[in-house]
Design the sequence.
C-alpha cells in the first residue's frame, strides 16, 4: 500500500536513512498516497526511491542483507535481534560494505524465497502470542537501532531547543550574579562588613553551579527588578510601568 510506503519513508528519515528501494509496489509508482503519508520525508526519500522488478535486482550491489521477519527459522541463517544486527551493520558499513534491510508487505511479510536471498534474519523479541509488527513500526525500530550511536544524547539537543531552553552562557550567569550583588548591596544584605567578602563569594558560587537556562536567567532578573521596584504599583488590570 502507498500509505505503508509513505509511513516507512517517514520512519527512515527520522534516523537519517534515505536510500529506499521498492520491489514491485502493488499499486504502482509513484503513488500520491505514499507522498501524503510521508509528510516531510517525500522530497528526501520518496523522490529518490528506486523501483525494481525483483528482490534479486534490488540487492544487486548489496554486500549483506538483513531480512526482517518473525518466520523463516527453518532456514539455516544467523538470527539477530535488531540491536545486534545493526551493531554488526554499522561495522560493515564503516569498513566499506553496502548493507540493506529487507522488509516484507504488511499483510504477509517476507516469503521464504525472499528470506533465502538475505544474509541473516532480524527478529524482534516481542510477545510470542502476538508477533505481528506494522511495516512502518518495524522500519522505525530498525532505524532507531541503526542510528543509535549517531543520535543526539538528549531528546532536544541545544542547537534545536527553543531559545529559552538553551543553557545560559557563563557571561549571562556572570551578569545575573552582578545584578543580584548590586541590589543586595543596596539592601545592606552583606552585613556585617567582615563577612561581606565570604557572603559574596558564596552567592557567586551558587549561581555558577546551578544548571540555569536562558529563560531561568531572564526570570531571575525579572524577579529581582520586581522586588526592588520603588515606583507606584499599577491599578488592577494595568501593566507595570517600564523598569530599569
Sequence:
Amino acid at each position: 500500500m502507498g500509505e505503508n510506503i509513505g509511513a516507512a519513508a517517514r520512519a527512515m528519515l527520522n534516523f537519517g536513512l534515505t536510500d529506499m528501494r521498492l520491489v514491485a509496489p502493488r499499486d504502482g509508482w509513484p503513488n500520491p498516497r505514499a507522498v501524503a503519508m510521508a509528510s516531510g520525508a517525500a522530497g528526501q526519500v520518496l523522490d529518490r526511491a528506486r523501483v525494481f522488478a525483483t528482490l534479486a535486482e534490488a540487492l544487486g550491489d548489496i554486500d549483506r542483507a538483513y531480512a526482517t521477519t518473525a518466520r523463516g527459522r527453518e532456514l539455516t541463517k544467523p538470527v539477530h535481534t535488531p540491536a545486534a544486527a545493526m551493531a554488526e551493520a554499522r561495522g560493515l558499513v564503516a569498513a566499506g560494505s553496502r548493507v540493506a534491510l529487507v522488509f516484507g508487505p504488511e499483510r504477509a511479510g517476507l516469503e521464504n524465497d525472499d528470506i533465502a536471498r538475505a544474509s541473516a534474519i532480524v527478529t524482534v523479541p516481542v510477545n510470542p502470542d502476538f508477533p505481528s509488527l506494522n511495516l512502518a513500526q518495524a522500519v522505525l525500530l530498525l532505524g532507531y537501532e541503526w542510528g543509535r550511536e549517531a543520535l543526539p544524547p538528549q531528546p532536544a539537543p541545544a542547537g534545536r531547543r527553543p531559545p529559552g531552553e538553551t543553557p545560559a552562557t557563563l557571561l549571562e550567569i556572570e551578569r545575573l550574579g552582578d545584578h543580584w550583588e548590586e541590589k543586595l548591596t543596596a539592601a545592606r544584605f552583606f552585613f556585617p562588613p567582615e563577612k561581606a567578602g565570604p557572603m559574596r563569594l558564596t552567592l557567586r558560587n551558587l549561581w555558577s553551579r546551578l544548571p540555569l537556562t536562558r529563560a531561568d536567567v531572564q526570570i531571575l532578573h525579572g524577579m529581582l527588578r520586581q522586588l526592588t521596584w520603588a515606583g507606584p504599583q499599577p491599578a488592577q488590570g494595568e501593566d507595570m510601568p517600564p523598569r530599569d
In short: Strands lie at 21-23, 50-52, 64-68, 79-80, 99-102, 120-122. The longest helix spans residues 170-186.
